[in-house]
Amino acid sequence: MACGGFDMSFFQAILLGILQGLTEFLPISSSGHLSIFKNLLKINLETGILYDVLLHVATLLSICIVYFRDVVRLIVEFIMIIVDIFRNLGILFKNAFSDSDDEYIKLTRTSYKKFVVLIIVTSIPTGVIGFLMQDIVGTVGTTLLIPGLCLMISGGVLLIADMMPSGKKKPKDVTYLNAFSIGMTQGIASLPGLSRSGTTITACLLCGFDRRFAVKYSFIMSIPAILGALLLQMKDMTTVTVETTEIISYIVGMVVATIVGLVSIKVMMAIVQSKKFKGFAVYCLIVGALSIIGFLVML
Length: 299
What we know:
- By secondary structure, the protein is mainly α.
- It is built from twelve helices and no strands.
- It is 74% helix and 0% strand.
């Protein structure tokens, strides 16, 4: 036995890797599908803590590969913002204890610096809401009703995304209220059945984002959230033991999740550009309705 009591076969690892790569980035809610499979079909899709961590790493890899230049630039600009903060503190003390009246350095003087600050603002409500809702999310995922209702909401949200006109906002045009609001939607989207990508992209479009930038913002803003979840899981890794024979399965599953994730992100970019969410919307509405019917039948 490994991974806290879970035996992972080679084919299970591949299957779960495919599911992760598809449902994490396409607007069909990975958590909603897992809840439905576990409750309606009585399928145990628990992956164990180690494979959960590896799937999160695979998700991060997919995003970082697709948006490699942006991620590197954002990291560099984040470091520069920290440097500028200390420089501003130096200016503050200089102005306070001398006759100097030096101007402070503007932290968002470039587009990418503004992008960094927007991501930080977005991450605050996401983290707070995610923390407050973690017990609720675990509870509602044990029934078919809430995932079903949330999937139907996701379907409605995707239909709204298809009707939205193309916006023009890029980082320099986005307000911090926009960023905060989008962060709130990402936090709420932790409910099983609510598609994180579909919900946040729609929120970006409602705020007037350029459609291509909306996709980029949605996926890059997920990086801090994924890292947070990863850190929470890492604290439970101390008691994990792994059979040598299973290591290859884990690695292969992670590679599969990364590759499928890359394809899914590219597909999502094309979908948003061409306004073709309707198929996914109908799918979410049908699966959500079936989930609710299943709940009523099982009463």
